[in-house]
């Protein structure tokens, strides 16, 4: 069980007068990470993650020095309510996104296309597969996302996002979670009507356009912070939900994933190195707009929540 002291902080990025900087959120206070710890290399979350093996202990000690109550600490801080939080990781080297990783979601998408539900890929020897989002497609918490003029079928997808804290290559499942620094929330916004290229035959292997479908400006709202992996425990036992304009659309649990996060890390790291700060979006459950025949429009507010992490909200414009 994580200590009370350790459970009291979250790793974030905030907007300072000098630009984005790493922060520790303790209770309702925000501390500049580099200043609190006394290490200039920790001015960015990427800098902290690059040194995660040693940084994790430093963060815990720094939190302990703030005292039993962050509100009474002598260390310089500012109120969370008056702080602009940005996406916790600014421009990672890669964002990997698991495709069709909840059985109910795979079934609803198959039904949309008039196909039977796909069988469990484990029984067919099929491994987890991923597509990419561009690092600069990330959107901050509460940021607006422009969808008008780009897509008439903009969809939502709540996902648990794992943040890598150590270089990982050819990692076996039983050791995979050791390479995760922490977890945050992501919305894998998807332009369903941009996923197929016009005037290309349906049977062509070049019909699909994953770039226009999945990686456009603002297509990866992320945040509000990173909760250390040691405070989360088992990433396969987290409730996750999504609302559009206050109406619940997705309500599931990460236990419903087809491929666990450990399986995904094993597959992704096979022959390729995962780097500190890299993000893995682990898939979304049923309840997306495509399965309902409804999509986002300008003015819609999308809120996502994951147990033990918090919530993130964005408005479509």
Structure overview:
The protein is 19% helix and 29% strand. The protein is of the alpha+beta class and 317 residues long. It has two domains: 6-86, no CATH class; 95-316, Fumarylacetoacetase-like, C-terminal domain (Fumarylacetoacetate hydrolase, domain 2). It has a seven-stranded mixed β-sheet. The longest helix is centred in the N-terminal third of the chain and has 14 residues, at 52-65.
* Number of extended strands: 19
- State the end-to-end CA separation: 43 Å
* Beta-strand content: 25-35%
Classify the fold: give the CATH topology of the largest domain.
Fumarylacetoacetate hydrolase, domain 2
Q: Segments where pLDDT lies below 50 for 5+ residues?
A: 1-7
The strands making up the biggest β-sheet line up spatially as 7-6-17-11-12-14-8
What Rg is obtained from the alpha carbons, in whole angstroms? 20 Å
CATH class of the largest domain: Alpha Beta
Summarize the structure.
The protein folds into two domains: 6-86, no CATH class; 95-316, Fumarylacetoacetate hydrolase, domain 2 (Alpha-Beta Complex), CATH 3.90.850. It has nine helices and 19 strands.
Write the layout of secondary structure elements.
Elements: E1 9-16, E2 19-26, E3 29-32, H1 33-37, H2 45-50, H3 52-65, E4 78-79, E5 85-86, E6 95-98, H4 103-112, E7 130-133, E8 138-139, E9 144-145, E10 154-155, E11 158-164, H5 173-176, E12 180-187, E13 190-191, H6 210-214, E14 220-228, H7 229-232, E15 239-244, E16 247-253, H8 261-268, E17 279-281, H9 289-292, E18 301-306, E19 310-316
Parallel strand pairs: 6-17, 8-14, 9-19
Antiparallel strand pairs: 1-2, 1-5, 2-3, 3-4, 6-7, 10-13, 11-12, 11-17, 12-14, 15-16, 15-18, 18-19
């Amino acid at each position: 069980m994580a200590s009370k002291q350790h459970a009291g902080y979250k790793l974030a990025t905030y907007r300072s007068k000098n630009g984005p900087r790493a922060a520790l959120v303790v209770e309702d206070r925000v501390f500049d990470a580099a200043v609190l710890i006394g290490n200039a290399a920790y001015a960015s979350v990427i800098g902290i993650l690059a040194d995660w093996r040693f940084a994790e202990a430093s963060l815990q000690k720094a939190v302990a020095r703030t005292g039993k109550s962050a509100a009474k600490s002598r260390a310089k801080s500012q109120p969370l309510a008056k702080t602009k939080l940005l996406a916790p990781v600014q421009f990672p080297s890669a964002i990997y996104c698991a495709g069709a990783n909840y059985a109910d979601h795979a079934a609803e998408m198959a039904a949309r296309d008039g196909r039977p539900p796909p069988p469990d890929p484990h029984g067919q020897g099929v491994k987890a597969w991923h597509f990419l989002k561009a690092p600069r497609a990330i959107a901050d918490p509460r940021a607006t996302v422009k969808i008008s003029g780009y897509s008439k079928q903009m969809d939502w997808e709540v996902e648990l996002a794992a943040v890598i804290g150590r270089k990982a290559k050819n990692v076996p499942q039983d050791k995979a979670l050791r390479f995760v620094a922490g977890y945050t929330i992501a919305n894998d916004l998807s332009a369903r009507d941009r996923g197929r290229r016009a005037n290309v035959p349906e049977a062509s292997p070049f019909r699909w356009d994953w770039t226009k479908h999945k990686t456009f400006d603002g297509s990866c709202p992320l945040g509000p912070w990173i909760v250390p992996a040691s405070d989360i425990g088992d990433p396969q036992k987290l409730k996750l939900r999504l609302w559009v304009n206050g109406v619940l659309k997705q309500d599931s649990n990460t236990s419903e994933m087809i491929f666990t996060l450990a399986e995904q890390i094993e597959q992704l790291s096979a022959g390729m190195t995962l780097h500190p700060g890299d993000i893995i979006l682990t898939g979304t459950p049923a309840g997306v707009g495509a399965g309902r025949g409804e999509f986002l429009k300008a003015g819609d507010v999308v809120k996502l929540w994951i147990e033990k992490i918090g919530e993130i909200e964005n408005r479509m414009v």
